[in-house]
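sorry for the late reply, my laptop died twice this morning and i had to redo everyting from scratch. anyway the thing you sent over, i finally got around to it. pasting the sequence first so we're on the same page, its 87 residues, then the predicted structure underneath. double check i copied it right bc i was rushing
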Amino acid sequence: MSALARFLGDSPFRVFLKLLVVSFLVGLVMSAFGWSPFDVLRSIQDFFLDIWRMGFRAIDKFIGYLLLGAAIVIPAFIILRLFSYRK
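ok and here's the structure:
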């Protein structure tokens, strides 16, 4: 088996035929739905932008919860440490 065939996983001609058939089927489905490659790329870009924006909202909420909890936990920790220090 040649290095190219090992890399492709099969003979180059068979890989070419498989890619040709799959490309035709994907093109047929995309045409049926009225999609273009640019629509797909734009959708992928919008998906990652939405995740990016959602991620920062999640971080903002996390920091808010952290600070809210710290307003109670840190003073309680200091008070408990002061009481246990006197023993």
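The chain has a mean pLDDT of 88.
thats about all i looked at so far, will dig more tmrw
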